[in-house]
Amino acid sequence: MSNKIRINLMRYRPDEDEKPWAQPFEIEWTQDMSILDALDLLKGDFDPTIAYRWSCRMEVCGSCGMVVNGEPRLACSTFVREFADVGEITIGALDQFPIEKDLVVDLDPFINKLNAVSPFIITKNPRALAEKEYLQTPQQLAKFKQYTMCINCMLCYQACPQIGINADFLGPAAIALAQRYNLDNRDQGDKQRFSALNDENGVWPCTFVGACSNVCPKHVDPAGAIQQAKAAAVPYWAASMVTKDKKEA
């Protein structure tokens, strides 16, 4: 088997290009070479202007999300050897987000959605430091622990068909993180979060395709979280309908 492979890198320079285009390269690969390693090789040996994000190299930071041969993947944990039989790899940006340059995308739309669900513990009566920490049993932690594993890599947004139809949809990661806090026994902010979750662009556009859960590198189940949030949102939705009817009457 040849140790050479073709890489089609999707390039985009906003001051020059109307849309992304593929630039071909041929490299020699090794068994332990990741897609991120391949990008480093391209940047170091072929073109120093190639732009992409990375940080930890350990599937922790979520920075290196991109599309590899049509699938949302993390570049640090996807290996060139997986595509040896195919003979070529196409690497592109997570284009459900605005592309800033090459593989770098603008994550402000997600940050705004995340802020909308107040992703932090909200308490009505905060404890003084002298009262020490809030205690939590293993059973209480287990209710939401998987959602704490989200690394905000945005692979779920790339996979989500609803995001492709409606860019204003709150989306898998934001809703999963909202559910993480709603299930936390220390939190009392569910009513505040459901103002966003019950919005027309909140939980309801999700059709439970499940693609978001399938691509999650940390095995979080955002599709399940969205269905849980839908069930929990019904009382708030019903209350809003009663209030609306009273106002109209």
UniProtKB/TrEMBL annotation:
4Fe-4S ferredoxin-type domain location:
140-170
Task: Read off the InterPro entries from this record.
Answer: 2Fe-2S_ferredoxin-like_sf, 2Fe-2S_ferredoxin-type, 4Fe4S_Fe-S-bd, 4Fe4S_Fe_S_CS, Beta-grasp_dom_sf, Helical_ferredxn, SDH/FRD_Iron-Sulfur, Succ_DH/fum_Rdtase_Fe-S
CDD domains cross-referenced by the UniProt entry? fer2
Respond yes or no to whether keyword Coiled coil is given for this record: no
Query: Is Iron-sulfur there in the keyword field?
Result: yes
Per the UniProt record, which EC number(s) apply here? 1.3.5.1
Cofactors needed by this protein, per the record, are:
[4Fe-4S] cluster; [3Fe-4S] cluster; [2Fe-2S] cluster
Question: Which UniProt key words apply to this protein?
Answer: 2Fe-2S, 3Fe-4S, 4Fe-4S, Iron, Iron-sulfur, Metal-binding, Oxidoreductase, Tricarboxylic acid cycle
Please list the GO biological process terms of this entry.
respiratory electron transport chain; tricarboxylic acid cycle
- Kindly list the GO molecular function terms attached to this UniProt entry: 2 iron, 2 sulfur cluster binding; 3 iron, 4 sulfur cluster binding; 4 iron, 4 sulfur cluster binding; electron transfer activity; metal ion binding; succinate dehydrogenase (quinone) activity
What sort of enzyme, by top EC class, is this? Answer: oxidoreductase
Q: What does the record give as its pathway? A: Carbohydrate metabolism; tricarboxylic acid cycle; fumarate from succinate (bacterial route): step 1/1
Pfam family of the protein (one)? Fer2_3
Recorded hits in NCBIfam families, A to Z, give: dhsB (TIGR00384), PRK05950.1 (NF004616), PRK12385.1 (NF009051)
Family as reported in the entry's similarity comment:
Belongs to the succinate dehydrogenase/fumarate reductase iron-sulfur protein family.
Q: How does it assemble?
A: Part of an enzyme complex containing three subunits: a flavoprotein (frdA), an iron-sulfur protein (frdB), and diheme cytochrome b (frdC).
Q: What is the name of the protein in this document?
A: Succinate dehydrogenase iron-sulfur subunit
Supply the source organism for this entry: Cardiobacterium hominis (strain ATCC 15826 / DSM 8339 / NCTC 10426 / 6573)
